[in-house]
Structure formats: C-alpha cells, structure tokens
Amino acid sequence: MGKKPEEKDLPWVEKYRPMSLKEMAKPSAKLNNKKVDLADEIIDFIKNYKKDGEFKAILLEGPPGIGKTSIVYAIAGDLNMKVIETNASDTRTQKAIHRKLDEASKARDMMDFLQKSRNKIILIDEIDGIYGVTDKGAVPTILEIMKNSEFPIIMVANEYKKTLNPIYRSVKKYEVQPLADDEVIKILKNILKRENLTGFKPKDLVKIVKKNHGDLRASINDLQGLMQGGGAIDSIEDIQNLQRDTSEVIFSLIRTLFTEVKTLNEARNLLDKSDVDYSLLYKWVNENLPKYINLNDELSDAFENLSLADQIFGRIRTYQYWALLPYFFDLFGGGVALSKKRSYIPGFVRNTFPQMISGRVGANKLSLAKKLEEEYEISSIEAVRTEIPFLKLLASMSIKKKKEISEWLDLDAKEKKLLSK
Amino acid sequence: MADKNPIWSLNYKPKRLDDICGRDQVVSQLKDFVRNINFPHLLITGNEGVGKTTIAKCFAKAFLGEFYDSNFKLLYADIPVSSEERSQAGISTTFSKSVIGSRAGRRRYIHPFLDIKVKPFVQIRVLGESPFKILVVKNFEALGQFQQGFRRLMETYGTNCRMIIITTRVSSIIDPIVSRCQLLFVSQIDFINFKKLMLNIADEEGIKINEPAIEILYKYTEGQINKAINIMQLASMHTTLINSEMLYDVIDLFREKGINELLNFIYKGDFVKCREHIRSIRRTYNYTAREIYKKMLDEVLLAPLGKKLKIQFINHIADADFRGNDGLDDDIQLSSLISKLCLLSKKL
C-alpha cells in the first residue's frame, strides 16, 4: 500500500488510490434512511469495537466504483492498521466456499490467524458475489467468523441479496450514495494535472463522467484508456466506443435491422459494426421477431432461417467449428430481416427482453414441491409434473378438500394461491 | 396410514419390497440381492409409470437399511444442470491439457451432468457399514452420446458405488453399458392383481367400485397404479359408488389439455398466442423442449387431420427435434416449429 508506484503502466485506479481520508472524495451514506457521515461512522465503529458489542460488523452497500473499499483502506491508513482482504477474485477463498468439505477447516485456519495478530481490519469484499445462492455453508461460516472475530469486520456489497438476510440482521448496514458528478470531475482534473497531461477539453471530461453515473473507478479507467490510447482526443467518438453493451444499443440495433436493412450486405455491415455479443443478439431477434413480421408465411421463413442459425451456432459452440460462423451471421441477420416483405409495422415497436425459459422450477412452486418431496420422498420434478396438477384438481373439487390439503402441507398464502390458480 | 394425508396415491405407495404387488419375479430377484449383500449394476426397464423408480427405491432401502439416507441418491439425467450448479462446481478447463497426441489442445467436452452431479457422489466413500453406495439415474437415455462417459465412471467407481439405471427404452442405451448391467424388466401389473389392489384401497377408503369401472381404469391408465389411484380419488369426491359412466367424466377432466389447446391455437394460425401458450406450459410443468415435441406428436396422431397434413405436421416436429439436438436455444426451435405449423394450418 504505502509504496510509491514507479511503473508507468500501473493502472491509475491503483496509482491514485487514496492513502488517507484527506485525499479522497468522501462518499455520503444513509443509515436507516438518515444521512450520516460515513467516515466518522466507520472510525467510530473501529475504535469502539468490542468483542461482545451489539454489532459485530458493518456492511457498506452501494453501486460499484464509488469508493466503498477505498474509504476502508484510507481509514486504515490513517489509523495505522492493516487490512486483511478477501474478495471474489481470491481463488483460494472461492474454492473454500465451493468445496463444502474444505470449508470448516478453512474457517478454522482463518480463526487461528485472527487470534494471533493485532490491529487489523477484516474486509470482506463483494460478499454478494462470491457466496452463491445455493451455497448453504457460506453464510453460517461468515456468521461464525463474525461471532468469534477479535477484529472489526467490514463487508462490502453491491446489492441486496435475499440469501444474505441472516448477515444483514446482525450488521449495521450503510447505503453508500454515488458521488456527485462535479466531485468526480474534480478528481479527474487532479489526476490529469499530476500526470502532466494537457489538451483534454473539459466538455469531454463531463461526457466521461455523465456516462458513468457517479462510478469513479470506471471514469478513471475510461480516462486512462483515452489518454494512453493516443494522447489528447478531439472527437467524442472514442467515448462512444467505450460505451458498454446496453439494452438501448441492442434495441436500436434490432430496430434498424428490421426497418432499414434492404440487402444482405447491409445486414452484414450492421452486425459487423456493432459490438453486441452475438450469442445474446440472436436471442433478442427471436423474442422480437413476431413484432416486426406478422404475416404467417414470412414469419415461417424467418424462423426457418433463425432455427438453422441456432443449429449452426450450437455446432460451433460444441465442436468448435468456427468456420461456420459467417453462415450463422447471415442467417440470423439478413436471413431473418429480409424475410419481411409485405408485413406492415404499426409505428413504434417496443422491444422486449428475451425470456429465459429453463427447466428450473420457480421459487413459489419449488417451496410447495419441496414440501411434497420431504413428505413422500418423491423428487421435486416429479412433484411439479404429476402431484401439483393433481392437487390443483383435487382442490378445485371442494373447499373442504382444499383446506385439508393446505393444512396437511402447512401452506402459506402464496402457496395456497398457487393451488387455486 | 396417516389420517392427515389427503392424497391416496402417496398413502398407498409401497414403502418396502414386500409391499410391491404383482411383480413377483423381479421382487424375488431383488430380495436375493439383499440376502447376498451384493449385486451388479442394474438396468431397470419398463413402460412409463409402472413403478420402476418405486421398486428401485424400495430395493435400495432394503439393501442399505439404516444407512439409506447417506448412501443413496436419485438423479434425473434429463433435467438440465442449472448455471448456478455449474458455477458452484467451478468447471474451468474446457480444453484438453495434454500437449502431445491426437487430443492435444482439443476442446474437452464433458457432460456437466456427469461432472457436477454424478462424480461428487460417486467419488465420496461409503458412509456407515453398507458395502457400497447406490446411485439411481432416471431417464438415462437422455444422456445420449455421453453415456460413454458414464460407462467409465461405472468402471472406475463400481466398487464404491453401484448404479441403477432406469430407462423406458433399452434400445437407446449403448451396448457397453447394457452388457455391464443386469437387466430387470418391470412389467405392467396384471389385471387380477390390479383389481385386487383397487378393491383393497376402495375398501380402506370406504367407497365402492364396480368391476367394469376397474376395467376402464386399467385400460385407460395402462396399469399405472399411481394414476389409477388418483383418478379413483377424484371420482370418489362425487359419489361413494363409482361406476363406469362417472369414471369417464373424471378421466376427461384428468387428461392434460395444454398441448391440445396449443393445437387449437395452431389451427387458428395465431402465432403470438401459440408462443405465449407454449411458454406457459413449459413454465407450469417444467417440460423440456423434447418432451413437448413428444407430447405434440402424440396429440397430432389423434388429431382430426387429413393423412397428408398429419405427415407434414410430423415432418416439422421431427425436424425441430432434430435441430434442437444441435441447437442451443430451445425456444427458437419451438417458435420455428409453431410458425411453420401455423402456416400449414392455413390450408385447413
């Protein structure tokens, strides 16, 4: 941490990571919807940390790149403490979580480690990311670490996750707010000054910041990308190129594909130019096709091409026949778009996200199926396919029977609703 | 039996080998296995719903005794592995690690089912004092070309874990696996035993059912006891004396209408409605695309269509199924199929 980076290649994000609270833009935060000074709160927590205190840990929740991790490091720097960090990129931790059998021992290792050393802050980064939904062991492990830890624990998360509820209950949760645009601009300007770079128009700086919605890390990365890509820029095109795939991009692409493309070559060019992930794009085409083509004969032609494209793509992915890729593009792009001849598009079409339909059982139904599964040792799929439809029929016969069933399985309101649907 | 449970078919589900009625040959063979505390890999075949899984479970329970819970696992080969399970298993290397030889640098494709679901269970040692673990794989034919991979696991971990493979079609299972297993055929229950069973249940539940009604039940359910009991229970909601007329009403109610309705939408040529409908069916029953194709085929065969049109319908269904084999997105293949059928039905 404390060492001065000398290599030129060091990412600016690392190079200019604040070592002290004074250097950084402090993000504001909310606790129970009340605005608080985050830095003060954290310092307060660390200084008054007791092994049997009310809260064993605090959680910082907020969008990426706004300084959640940085503020912890900055405070640690000020208080001269060491930060022990685990996060999603730490493969050892990931494996420990994944392999249930190893888990218990790993936790013990960590505990031994904790008890030997002093003056440390434990930082668990991205806790919403590493601990998968189905991994039942992870949450108890963290709770246990929290219970036995002699050092303050600070957790960082991007978003609320239902499965982490037991953790939320025993921590103080701060909602960290994104930075204001002018604050980000100030920092970027400062970095440019320290890098001795000139010729960057303030207008472009604003564009970078606006695009990233308060995400300081992304803004710095974009800036570095632009500056190191070839010094000063004078057009905004570079910034546009940096734009990540968003649904808006796909929307407009699909719209152009169906309304403006007239020849196969045009379709090819359109798809060539876009950076959109094509494995996603053809699913979008599938979802929105019937909105642009409404005559059955044209629809069937279009789907013929699309299904062939899917088949080809499957072969590419399974057997690595990448030579087939051009066919895939032409079929799902031009092949589909040019099937439209007489279909009339009534004005503006609202595109929709592709629906994911998988063999997995929905959450509500799963809880009902799980009950049947436990009760009578049938698999949950069996329950969904044969027993739940039958239960529905039975429940529809008489109210008394319905009551009997719901009492037997101890159903809650949601599950009852499922039965009567 | 527990009074609380309102579902008969679950109540009368056999829990021990002795409870299984009518399949004496298979049961006595399995009892021999239990007595000898040893058995080879098994391949259980038989029609849908005749009780293959129930028998396998009863057998495993009898064999493993008190260690049943820790040493037994039931897997469905046709249920896709979710992305969650995938990421949990952390499969990272998709390329062959060997540097020399014909496989060097090639893409290594292992069916996630084997890697994620089978291997972890098979590799862990036996818990308790039973001689080995038991793994039951249902709908094994769905593994397709990856059966070879399973064969290897059978060989490597055979001493640790015996596999019971359950399938409806032996023909779709590769020879090396068939030759490694002892085949057990679970036949349909014969009418005499079926009648005895039904009368027994009726007696216990305090209803009456006459012989013609039982005959209809037997014919309609093709000896699927589970289904028969369910129908009987539904019928009993109306009267305590079940006769054949009343049974027909219930059977009609019991028939799954989803695919039939889908065909009706197809005849009208309304693509958007069809797609919504097919998606809702898949959501409610969690069917795979292949199951939908099969159900459509069954319905089309019964549908009031001309010979030529029927063949054309079947042709398209077959084509969709065939393409779905290679394809990645089932929804595209299904959409493509219904768009073609919608076009065809214009000629109706």
Can you put this structure into words, describing what you see?
With 421 residues, chain A is α/β, with parallel strands linked by helices. Chain A folds into four domains: 12-176, P-loop containing nucleotide triphosphate hydrolases (Rossmann fold, 3-Layer(aba) Sandwich), CATH 3.40.50; 181-242, Helicase, Ruva Protein, domain 3, CATH 1.10.8.60; 247-337; 363-420, no CATH class. Chain A is built from 21 helices and seven strands. Chain A has a seven-stranded mixed β-sheet with strand order 2-1-7-3-6-5-4. In chain A, β1 and β2 form a beta hairpin. In chain A, α10 crosses α11, α13 (247-259) crosses α15 and α15 packs parallel to α17. Chain A starts with 11 loop residues before the first helix and ends with a helix. By secondary structure, chain B is of the alpha/beta class. Chain B folds into three domains: 23-185, 3-Layer(aba) Sandwich (Rossmann fold), CATH 3.40.50.300; 191-254, Orthogonal Bundle (Helicase, Ruva Protein, domain 3), CATH 1.10.8.60; 258-347, Up-down Bundle (Zinc Finger, Delta Prime, domain 3), CATH 1.20.272. In chain B, 56% of the residues lie in helices and 9% in strands. Chain B has 17 helices and seven strands. In chain B, the strands form two sheets. Chain B has a five-stranded parallel β-sheet, with helices on both faces. In chain B, strands 6-7 form a two-stranded parallel sheet. In chain B, α7 links the parallel β3 (133-138) and β4 (161-167). The radius of gyration of chain B is 23 Å and the shape is flat. The relative contact order of chain B is 0.10. The interface between A and B is large, with 62 and 58 residues.
